[in-house]
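User: Working on a comparison across species. This one is Co-chaperone YbbN from Peterkaempfera bronchialis. Can you predict its structure so I can line it up against the others?
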Amino acid sequence: MQPRNMSMRGVVDLAAVKAAGEAAQKAEQSRAERARQVAAGGAPPAPESLVVDVTEETFEAEVVQRSAEAPVVVDFWAEWCGPCKQLSPILERLAEEYAGRFVLAKIDVDANQMLAAQFGIQSIPSVMAVVAGQLVPLFQGAVNEAQARQYLDQLILVAEQRFGITGLGAAEAGEPGEAAAPAVPEDPTLAAAHDALDRGDLGGAIQAYRNVLADRPGSEEAKLGLAQAELLQRVRDKDAQAVRKAAAEDPKDVQAQLDAADLDLVGGHVEDAFGRLVDTVGRTAGEDRDRARVHLLGLFEVIGAEDPRVAKARTALARVLF
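Assistant: Here's the predicted structure for Co-chaperone YbbN from Peterkaempfera bronchialis:
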């Protein structure tokens, strides 16, 4: 159930590191073209609407293509849905307030059933995001404005740090003749690691990211790439059906639970992966408990400490540990 030309791997995007560079390049080219038009005496392009109704026919242009310049928040709703009527005005108001730092795409699930099925929507409201063509699940159900801001702020941070996407606002608000800032050259050692990951050379990618971290231990991009590459290496040769069968038959089989959590995360089921390992920590002791705890902390690294789902899982982990 994959949307057209999109990864359904959620925040654990197997090509996210490579896509980050490509997305940043596309966004920079678009900004440079707008600046060139203005400098040549032409009128800047009219700002695009920050809230759009999307259909199956317009999804590619309104969501996937626009996600190269700004995070696109996708709100799945329906006319009969009471919680949707509470949430949608909040998201619309925030889209205007954030002034181009994200775009809100509204999808009526009744009128666009194929899209809803492709995204695996089972309940509404459901809110996801697309950044550089990559799917990032956000939340389900109605949330209040403060909670929505928390999710949006984290999404914007991820878009900027991992993909170099800063939104529409800065480019549209520039003074006439103002040139776009020059693109920052990509680190060649990181580029080599990204290329190895993109080729599927997981061993080479892991070593390359470790080399980067040996020189620059604080490189968040290298830490993310290493965590992703190690995760992919663990699941590459796993029989998903056999792993899930073993995990279901014996909840105390720690290795089966670790393997199943990895598969959950690669499939974009972040909360399921975290919940599985928190439960495993709670039902085990000694070395088994420590294995599950350390593995869970490693999955936190893949997602990022600022993600609200990580904070929630840390709290749950603390409860079972103490």
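For your comparison, note: The chain has two domains: 16-172, 188-321.

User: Helpful, thanks.
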